[in-house]
Amino acid sequence: MAYNVDMTSFTSRLDAVLQTYQRLPPEIATIAVNFSKDRFREQAWLDRTKHPWKPRKKVRGRSKRRSQTLLVDKGRLKRSIRKIKATIDEVIIGTDVEYAEIHNAGGEINKTVNVRSHTVKSHRRKAHTRTRAGRTEKVKTQTVKSFTVRAHKRKMNLKIPQRQFLGESYTLIRRIELHTIARFRRALR
Asked: What are the tens digits of pLDDT across the range 115-128?
């Protein structure tokens, strides 16, 4: 007794599984990068629950910041998060920005830095009166004085709070698992 077996269906599914297996690491890296960038938008770390970042201290006077989002001024740190390695064995995402580690893990900075000499401008508004076309009016004028600050040393004692945006997360692992399952199911159809 002999059986006639058609192997084309089996081999085509096997090829689809192999292709999925090879395409999966870059897709997982993209999921991880997007998850990390979402931390900046939400301003919170997401593991099993959301852990909001510690808010910024109040700034006196006018702020020179372009953005109200924590850890984002020009967006260099957020843009620098990328896929470093994506192979079948491992997927690594990260950043090359030097201050990323202290913001991600938190910590203290205790050191002395040299400050170069520089010029500082001081703006002062004065109110005075003037007569124009027969009537007196109050006018504010601005005077600018510049001062030169000599070179000196400054002690830095900073405590940087942890505002995690990279790392292992239950939610991220779950998203990767669901994506992987969906991709293999699609390959086996």
From this structure: 999 999 887 777 77
Question: What HEC string does the chain produce?
Answer: CCCCCCCHHHHHHHHHHHHHHHHHHHHHHHHHHHHHHHHHHHCEEECCCEEECCCCCCCCCCCCCCCCCCCCCCCHHHHHCEEEEECCCCEEEECCCCCHHHHHHCEEEEEEEEECCEEEEEEEEEEEEEEECCEEEEEEEEEEEEEEECCEEEEEEEEECCCCCCCCCHHHHHHHHHHHHHHHHHHCC
φ and ψ at 62, to 5 degrees?
-80, 140
The pTM of the full predicted model, rounded to 2 decimals, is 0.73
Euclidean distance between CA atoms 118 and 123, whole angstroms? 16
Q: Where are the domains of the chain?
A: 8-56+66-111+159-187
